[in-house]
Queue: 2 jobs
Job 1
Amino acid sequence: MNERFIAFTNRLNKNFKHFSKLMRKQNIDAYRIYDKDIPEFPFAVDIYGDSRVIYEYHTPHKNIADEERQNAVLSVCMATDCTQDKVHYKVRQKQKGDEQYQKTGILGEDLIVSENGIPFWVNLDKYLDTGLFLDHRNTRLRIKNEAMGKRFLNLFAYTGSFTVYAAKGGAIYSETVDLSNAYCEWAKRNFKLNNINTKQHIIIRENVLEYIQQTQKQFDLIVIDPPSFSNSKKMTNSFDIQRDHVLLIKQAMKLLSPNGVLYFSNNLRTFKLANEISEKYNIKDISAQSVPIDFRNKKIHRCWQIKHFQAALK
Ligand SMILES: C[S@@+](CC[C@H](N)C(=O)[O-])C[C@H]1O[C@@H](n2cnc3c(N)ncnc32)[C@H](O)[C@@H]1O
């Protein structure tokens, strides 16, 4: 291995020892051990059970050569005690449209990882993302803790992980909405894996923007975690979180019962919550609690708890 990578290997090893112990105690198989800790090594490294994922952060000014990539893989193997076939290498570039959700062309292998004792299907090759967004682990647990006896709505649901937690926490009914057939199927497999009844917990393949205008139902707990931008062929208009969040939140608040709670989150660095929303509803920024301890980048997402004002008076 190149000498330059010794610092990277040492940091990985130190973090792996620390986080593997911490996460084992909590029954968590999937977590981050390296998050661009050393600027010279612009990677994130995640553990998924016996497998590892390296994300290379592409910077326009610096191209990472194949040899450097190979060195990064060797460092991960040495530091976390695994063989090279267990390491999955991905390049994170600025995405256009819904590119992030397109297939990579590699089929990969479906694996099960557990989080707080709850199993999920992941695939470390098929798409850029794995099926489980690790930065939402804390919010998933929060949903489980708040779900008892509630009607739950999961918008932009991806593989349905928030709903799995809600059902495990005792939600009596739920709707899980996503535009993608592939992710609705994946959600279905996660429900099956967790013995969740799909008559009580319904998966809907639809454009959220149309769904929220049409549904007449009321929910007590809602999660909205949209992409920053989406222009899928299945949509008539594009979706832009900065431009469209006011309408989205206002529509969703109409579906929220008077004492209900809505969680709204997104990953857009430059995102500003409109004054209209903070004035109209009872808002709390919970990002300091929602970003997990293993994410050094505390700006990975922002998350707000939103309630009707009258709920606070009761
Ligand atoms: C950031 S991911 C959501 C992550 C998810 N909340 C979680 O924590 O697992 C975005 C998801 O939004 C879906 N999506 C994008 N535009 C949509 C739309 N207009 N209506 C419904 N789903 C949409 C994508 O298919 C993708 O699954």
Job 2
Amino acid sequence: MKTSRIHQLIERLGLLARSESRRIGSEMALQPVHVQALQYLERCNRYSNTPAALVGYLGQTKGTVSQSLKLLAREGYLEKRTDPEDARVVRLHLTPKAHQALRQLPPTETWMHAERTLSPSERKALTAGLESLLKALQAAHGGRTFGICSTCRHFQNGVGEEHRCGLTGEVLTDDDSRRICQEHEERRSA
Ligand code: SF4
């Protein structure tokens, strides 16, 4: 039997994380996929808040995501608005109710406490290792990376709070630079 200790550990951690999501989400009548959709929309940038981007991020079918979005809109967690610059595009916006719910969702204090039992150097090494593994798997599956903006090859670091996206030419704030983006591309190594 093939075994990988890393795979076993990640699977176990994933089960624990999902069980936290399920427990807290069920108190709000939300399933894990609804919680994941809300968490994605809280973290993504203005280029990535569309149903299609959410399908790519969650790796679910269009139909499943569409049903989830209908429920979240019906329950007052999000609003669908037409993009003012392109009427063909629908943008998903979280409501105050969603932001309030997200404050109670994982990572819970239990999870954060467990993370704090690691030393800063252990956390840094673990983060770097998991990021490398995620990138390798995304590359193997040909998927988008949904990486953090400031690590993108199109990101142009500016002075003060203003930066620029080399792909769209638009100004990015510090807050934008910390968000995830469906257009993110890894920097090419020299
Ligand atoms: S710099 Fe990259 S990640 Fe940031 S907004 Fe532009 S394409 Fe997206």
